[in-house]
Amino acid sequence: MKESQPSAIFLKDYKVPPFLIDKTELTFDLEEATTIVTSRLHMRRNPAFGKSTAPLVLDGGEDVKLIGVAMDNYSLPPEEYRVSEDKLIITATADKFVLTCETLIEPQNNTRLEGLYRSSSMFCTQCEAEGFRHITYYLDRPDVMSVFTTTIIADESRYPVMLSNGNEVERGKTEEGKTVVVWHDPFPKPAYLFALVAGDLAVKNDVFTTQSQRDVKLQIFTETHNIDKVDYAMEALKRSMRWDEEAYGREYDLDIFMIVAVDDFNMGAMENKGLNIFNSSCLLASPETTTDDNYLRVEAIVAHEYFHNWSGNRVTCRDWFQLSLKEGFTVFRDQTFSADMHSETVKRVEDVAFLKTAQFAEDAGPMAHPVRPASFIEISNFYTLTVYEKGAEIVRMIHTLLGAEKFRAGSDLYFERHDGQAVTCDDFVAAMQDASGVDLSQFKRWYSQAGTPTVLVTDSFDESTGTYRLTMKQDTPATPGQPTKLAVHIPVRVGLLDPQGAELTSSVQGVDAQEHVLHLTSNEQDFEFTGLTARPVPSLLRGFSAPVKLRYDYSTTDLLLLMSSDTDGFNRWSASQQLAVGELNTLIKQSIDGETLSIDSQLALGFKTLLNDASLDPAMVALVLALPSQAYLSELANPIYPAAIKQARDFLKAQLANVLIEDFKRVYHEHNVTGEYQAVAEDIARRSLKNTALSYWVETGNELAQQAVLDQFQSANNMTDQFAALSIAVNTQHAKAADLLSAFYEQWKNEPLVVNKWLMLSASQESDAALTTVKSLMAHPAFDLKNPNKVRSVLGGFGQSMSGFHNADGSGYRFLADQIIVLNKKNPQIASRLCTPLTRWKKLQPELSVKMKAELERILAEDLSKDVYEVVSKSLA
Ligand code: B3K
Ligand code: ZN
């Protein structure tokens, strides 16, 4: 352990920067072993800071070597500045000056993948949040916005493509014959949006004509062998540009928009101004190599990064505590875009299922934090589901409270008021409030309180007056550092059904409607619905109108009614999930108690109706048929018994399969999609139902079904069907599963993105030999510890498995901890992310919990990066 541990920084300590940088001129001289960066920073003291003689303190990483520093062309002698581990401090400065810094970096040794680094043969950058300081000394904070001019000098034969933000303004040669390219970005931006790429890349060109009839040049760059896989992303980009004009009135502002795909990237993609950089897994797509889910992911991420041009770049964050200002809003925007492109209900179900599984778990664990955190040790740890997904739910609730029109007025006001500024979540809410006249003062607590509120609902019906009353109680659990909570403003969308499933009109506070938005603002509140003749069945929290855990004691009959009749598609799904969770919890308890599992499943009734209703969207039917995941059941459980969860889920799936075998078989055949592959909603829906039906049919052990899996694997003309067949074979321990896995690898070994899928599936197999498998995967030629996608596939996949990771002897935990210790030095961000499954130790069954905790303690005893230290120390606190 280090002698002094990293310390936290606090939102309450925010101060405006003492200096500003009006212009930033950067020159990169790119060589194979070293890169020399020369910066000329046009600086002045910040009038908003007040009169001061404070020294100039610039941020820089350990990996930046200072060659020289000059102020207004006066070269500073060593006694006039000081270099510490992460700062350059210059004691005496004028009020206005040009600071020149020359630094040396080694991109080829940069395994953290922050700052300037190499991926394959190219140079690329990742600067958010604090990567720019690994390039040169700077005021690396988002409220310092500067106009950048970037000069790239490189050998053109190796790096014919040299890109940075903005427009290319000059091109020439040095005396030694190297090529010089100059880029200028007219929009002031923080350093986190800086980007540079140099490499031997192929390009696909296109043009987008904006609503004001300006032509924007669009370019997507990849390594040559991948350029045939960017057509879908290009179309998605054009759809996004049009959508942002129509839905938000936001037009693109530069004359060129570029995207570059790189193989080594810590996350999905990055919204650098005019030059987005993408993990190739989030950009490349072809029918043979990409599944439907991945197609939709490409579209959503292309849209997300593009939308940041306004929500993030034109209006950015004042400090990193405000991260959700841009991320929550942009996730909401990309979710709405995807809903508009495909099915609104399907998209909502998928997003909510993810939120309830992963974000709720985070919000209930040791890393729980508010959407606007009050403190952090390492900001990279706060690119979380809470900041992104719960942040998007907050924006969605504002949309619900204001209505579409006023929400748009609020967003227009926000962009108009703050264009070119670095602002806060409070500024966003203020714009929404000012434009709409809706009071959001209590609502703002959603930004500052961590934890998922529970809403407990009870009801009563007064026959004499025809009045139905809902009583709602809200409670937000204690979270680290926040023992007590205040009531939040929760919008609850509610409809009422009669016992036959027909939608009822009722009156709430004089308003007659079939659906009402109730405002739960107190700890306990009553809502009265009048004008009813019989006790209704309530359809609560329609569309998941707030990120809460809603508890209402539905009977099985009620749930079956909602499942078949609710006009709200989301709540039909939600009812099916509640029914399934109830049955699974009964089975989990039987398993824990050592009883023989048995259940008279009512779910089968609901499933049968769905499988025989041709009027339904097959994608929705598939979502209803998908039983709650092991991860979601783990989130609900306390304590978690992994083996019991797995056993219960397998048992129920097999039982449903046997009861409904004929329906699954028929639906499988009926939903085959013939003809050329298209990633369109209708075909995606059919494939998803077909493959879900196959997964059940195979559970029965039926020979025809076993054969259908093999046939589909062999004859599929697209990755969705082929990979579905493979996954089903693996997950059902098909006799030929191992053969198919080998055949799949042989077929695709030259397609790294497909190999990643193979690694993930192989690593997450449920088997007692899982650990041996994972060890052999890490020794496989396809594996590379330096590539985040491969690490995520193997170690992330392993962390999801029930039998392998949670092996009773603790060997799964020990293995993961060993890998985290190795990666902690190489790539702290990735190492820190891998800790997530270990942070759940307090919720595990006692025998496993102690073993997991011991591994966290073992990690903590190491010399740790800030990233890993924060997660592990908070988990043990
Ligand atoms: N803004 C980036 C995420 C940067 C993560 C830095 N550790 C991608 C996105 O949310 O669009
Ligand atoms: Zn984002």
TrEMBL record:
<feature type="domain" description="Peptidase M1 membrane alanine aminopeptidase">
    <location>
        <begin position="232"/>
        <end position="446"/>
    </location>
</feature>
<dbReference type="GO" id="GO:0008237">
    <property type="term" value="F:metallopeptidase activity"/>
</dbReference>
<feature type="domain" description="Peptidase M1 alanyl aminopeptidase C-terminal">
    <location>
        <begin position="557"/>
        <end position="877"/>
    </location>
</feature>
<protein>
    <recommendedName>
        <fullName>Aminopeptidase N</fullName>
        <ecNumber>3.4.11.2</ecNumber>
    </recommendedName>
</protein>
<dbReference type="GO" id="GO:0016285">
    <property type="term" value="F:alanyl aminopeptidase activity"/>
</dbReference>
<dbReference type="InterPro" id="IPR042097">
    <property type="entry name" value="Aminopeptidase_N-like_N_sf"/>
</dbReference>
<dbReference type="InterPro" id="IPR014782">
    <property type="entry name" value="Peptidase_M1_dom"/>
</dbReference>
<keyword id="KW-0378">Hydrolase</keyword>
<dbReference type="InterPro" id="IPR012779">
    <property type="entry name" value="Peptidase_M1_pepN"/>
</dbReference>
<dbReference type="Pfam" id="PF17900">
    <property type="entry name" value="Peptidase_M1_N"/>
</dbReference>
<feature type="domain" description="Aminopeptidase N-like N-terminal">
    <location>
        <begin position="107"/>
        <end position="193"/>
    </location>
</feature>
<dbReference type="GO" id="GO:0008270">
    <property type="term" value="F:zinc ion binding"/>
</dbReference>
<dbReference type="GO" id="GO:0006508">
    <property type="term" value="P:proteolysis"/>
</dbReference>
<dbReference type="Pfam" id="PF01433">
    <property type="entry name" value="Peptidase_M1"/>
</dbReference>
<feature type="domain" description="Peptidase M1 alanyl aminopeptidase Ig-like fold">
    <location>
        <begin position="451"/>
        <end position="553"/>
    </location>
</feature>
<dbReference type="InterPro" id="IPR035414">
    <property type="entry name" value="Peptidase_M1_pepN_Ig-like"/>
</dbReference>
<dbReference type="InterPro" id="IPR001930">
    <property type="entry name" value="Peptidase_M1"/>
</dbReference>
<dbReference type="InterPro" id="IPR045357">
    <property type="entry name" value="Aminopeptidase_N-like_N"/>
</dbReference>
<dbReference type="InterPro" id="IPR038438">
    <property type="entry name" value="PepN_Ig-like_sf"/>
</dbReference>
<dbReference type="InterPro" id="IPR037144">
    <property type="entry name" value="Peptidase_M1_pepN_C_sf"/>
</dbReference>
<dbReference type="Pfam" id="PF11940">
    <property type="entry name" value="DUF3458"/>
</dbReference>
<comment type="function">
    <text>Aminopeptidase N is involved in the degradation of intracellular peptides generated by protein breakdown during normal growth as well as in response to nutrient starvation.</text>
</comment>
<comment type="similarity">
    <text>Belongs to the peptidase M1 family.</text>
</comment>
<keyword id="KW-0479">Metal-binding</keyword>
<keyword id="KW-0862">Zinc</keyword>
<dbReference type="InterPro" id="IPR024601">
    <property type="entry name" value="Peptidase_M1_pepN_C"/>
</dbReference>
<dbReference type="InterPro" id="IPR027268">
    <property type="entry name" value="Peptidase_M4/M1_CTD_sf"/>
</dbReference>
<keyword id="KW-0645">Protease</keyword>
<keyword id="KW-0031">Aminopeptidase</keyword>
<keyword id="KW-0482">Metalloprotease</keyword>
<dbReference type="Pfam" id="PF17432">
    <property type="entry name" value="DUF3458_C"/>
</dbReference>
